[in-house]
Amino acid sequence: TYTNEDGVATTFDAKRSTVLDNGDGTFTITDDSGTSVTVDTNNTVTTLVDNGDGSFTYTSEDGTVTTFTETNSTLVDNADGTFTYTNEDGVVTTFDAKRSTVLDNGDGTFTITDDSGNSVTVDTNNTVTTLVNNGDGSFTYTSENGTVTTFTETLSTLVDNTDGTFTYTNEDGVATTFDAKRSTVLDNGDGTFTITDDSGNSVTVDTNNTVTTLVNNGDGSFTYTSENGTPVQFQASTITDNGDGTSTIGLADGGTITVDNDGVDNVDDADNSPNNEIQTITSTDGSVTVTQTDINYNLSVPTANGAETIVEAAPDTDISVSGTGTSADPYLIANTRPDIFYPPSIEVDVATTGTGRTIDLHAEYITQYGTPDVRSAGAPAAIPTYANTELYYYVTYYDPTVFANVSVSATGVMQYDVIAVPTDYNTLINVVFVAQ
């Protein structure tokens, strides 16, 4: 019973239909009015028996028996595109079953025949196209259907300018020059290689062990070339035996000294003038006083009356005389030719860069001159040396690619910066000492 908002009541039947499985292959169906029916889903077996005489007996589910005769139908191919069909009742029907065919003629053509006998031949060979060069930059093309087309084909060019660049001109005549340089390595065949980068910059690398050279220039000078190729020219003395009991010593400045080496004459005084040779000093009392001061000598010869012999230096000589010749102020005879020499070689560490490095050149000189490794027979154990204040110090050359800010003090201490490591770990500094 349903009562709406207005209080109206309605009673209706809400029964549902049901299906009950009876468990034996049957089902009982009851509708919403209570009416029931049972349905049997089990299937009664039918039979079909061949009676062996062309007839068959059929028994249905409800037991009904039916006997009938089964005749065969036939289908015969008449070999002309038609077939004859005979059904079970003996009724004969002939029908056309022609098919379309495709015949390969073996020459690139095919004949197609439809089921009505209509034929057509298809040519699958490709008609030849042609392309003719007209010799004027144009070409004529003929297609399969005979259509003729003439066109002009411009060529692109690429020209080697022989300087590492190439010029490319396209079909429209537009020219483009580009750089195709490559870096090269040239084996010079002598142990050196020339490396040229793509910008044309070259450098030669020597893989041989670099050798130093010393060349006699034939004029009293020599040229020394170090491992890094730096040439240094210096002068050296030469000695020539004149064959007359004298020898001529060629000096670094081009001058000469002739020396008597026969054991009789005195030695010339180191110049080319025969008018100022060393003189014999005669003393009336038989005494001559020679006093050494460093490398200079004071010479005095007293006379019987107490006066001193006048001593003067001849013109154009390398001898200087100072003093008045008195006991209080004796003559001082000095050699005015500078005493110039190279200090001994030393090793300078340039394996790393650095600033403010120092070497005591005078100390190195004292060490090597004071204790030489080898000396000739009868030679003193040490070489005479100067004090550090008795010398002038000069740096005549240094490698500017390796050294900078080179200076030397009055006592022989050299200061320098190493700004680069030499490529072959060899470089050069030339130092000269001059006696004051």
In short:
By secondary structure, the chain is mainly β. The chain contains 1 helix and 39 strands.
Structure description:
The strands form 13 sheets. This protein has a 4-stranded antiparallel sheet with strand order 30-31-33-32, with no helix packed on it. A 3-stranded antiparallel sheet has the order 3-4-5, with no helix packed on it. It has 1 helix and 39 strands. It has one helix spanning 361-370; strands at 2-3, 9-10, 18-21, 26-30, 36-40, 47-50, 55-59, 65-69, 74-77, 82-86, 92-96, 101-104, 109-113, 119-123, 130-133, 138-142, 148-152, 157-160, 165-169, 175-179, 184-187, 192-196, 202-206, 213-216, 221-225, 231-235, 238-241, 246-250, 256-260, 289-293, 296-300, 319-322, 331-335, 340-341, 354-360, 391-398, 403-408, 413-418, 429-435. Mean pLDDT is 77; it is low at 264-268. It is mainly beta and 436 residues long.
List descriptors.
436 residues, mainly beta
Task: Produce the secondary structure layout.
Blueprint: E1 2-3, E2 9-10, E3 18-21, E4 26-30, E5 36-40, E6 47-50, E7 55-59, E8 65-69, E9 74-77, E10 82-86, E11 92-96, E12 101-104, E13 109-113, E14 119-123, E15 130-133, E16 138-142, E17 148-152, E18 157-160, E19 165-169, E20 175-179, E21 184-187, E22 192-196, E23 202-206, E24 213-216, E25 221-225, E26 231-235, E27 238-241, E28 246-250, E29 256-260, E30 289-293, E31 296-300, E32 319-322, E33 331-335, E34 340-341, E35 354-360, H1 361-370, E36 391-398, E37 403-408, E38 413-418, E39 429-435
Antiparallel strand pairs: 1-2, 3-4, 4-5, 6-7, 7-8, 9-10, 10-11, 12-13, 13-14, 15-16, 16-17, 18-19, 19-20, 21-22, 22-23, 24-25, 25-26, 27-28, 28-29, 30-31, 31-33, 32-33, 34-39, 35-38, 36-39, 37-38
